[in-house]
Amino acid sequence: MDSDLPFSQACENNKAPILTVLQQAFAGCSQVLEVGSGTGQHALHFAKHLPYLNWQASDQSVYLTALAERIRRAALPNLPVPLQLDICADPAPAIAADGLFTANTLHIMPWPVVQHFFSRLNELTAARASLCIYGPFNYNGQFSSASNQAFDASLKSRDPAMGIRDSEKVIELARQQGFHLKQDQPMPANNRFLWFTQNLQG
Length: 202
Known about the structure:
It is a single chain. With about 200 residues, this protein is an alpha/beta fold. The chain is about 40% helix and about 20% strand. The chain is built from 7 helices and 10 strands. The strands form 3 sheets. A 6-stranded mixed sheet has the order 2-1-5-6-10-9, sandwiched between helices. A two-stranded parallel ribbon has the order 3-4. A two-stranded parallel ribbon has the order 7-8. Helix 1 packs parallel to helix 2. The protein is globular and about 45 Å long. The model has no long low-confidence stretch (mean pLDDT about 95).
């Protein structure tokens, strides 16, 4: 019934494996903020299968109309109207998010925007929050697969500022904001799931 809305096959392919990890990572959470919700397919799937969570979708204004329409049609009680959130321009949502989720965003953001996103973590989340990031990552400066190397080249052909990020640099950005890596889970299609928890002692 949603054939008129933007659709991501990758979201369909990865939503079940991601959910398996989220069921553990967000077990103690009640309010999740998703940064970069895109088509909204993840938001619908996770809100449906994690009914104890209030799942707040968000994205830049250019994606908001279609995202809002998908969410409206779903009519899930724990999936409110999505919020506009440009990580570089908009204030943090007025919600106490004890979970933050983002998928396939860090390789789209220019590196300075990635750094800015991490610098705002404590503004975007409540105390003792869980941070979950899904996507491809490099390790020790090396691509983890030939397909990831080809994907990185494709990204850079679109915009030289895009590219697969080094996991060590991402983990360090999180550490600087008091979040430490709890789990680095391999996922299908040479992606990873990074689960961070907040260390209030820094």
